[in-house]
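Question (not urgent): is this output format expected?
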Amino acid sequence: MSRVALRRATATDAGAAADVWLRSFAAALPTVVRPRSDDDVRTYFREVVVLLRETWVAEAADRIVGLMVLDGDQLSQLYLDPDRRGCGIGDRFVDLAKQLRPHGLTLWTFQVNKPAHRFYERHGFVAVEYTDGSGNEEREPDVRYVWRPGHPHPAHPRPRHP
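Got this back:
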């Protein structure tokens, strides 16, 4: 495998980043219904994600193979090409996020995404809230994770009521 570099995304990365998102979502979340078309996702990446959010990409051999988006203290997206999972890129992204947000991070992931739960918990994130999905456009039950260095976390996550 070729060397992987993490760098800030540029406007020209939007299409490739959206394609990574689409491939990753399809592979990791086959039961989750996407409310947006592929073209809508590409437009959103081009007009919002890369331009208005702190977007990072993983690049190998001049190809985007992963992306991470930070929005304030929220790690709002972390997606890898399916053939690059398990290669340490996600670990590097989380380490970078922690360096950039040393006071803490929060994120949401779907409840059905058990591999993501294990990944984030391995990185010190703690589940603090479960929902019925009424607050996301997929209408898929989700869970909020929090990472706070040196801070205790609740022993039991609490459900969120709409």
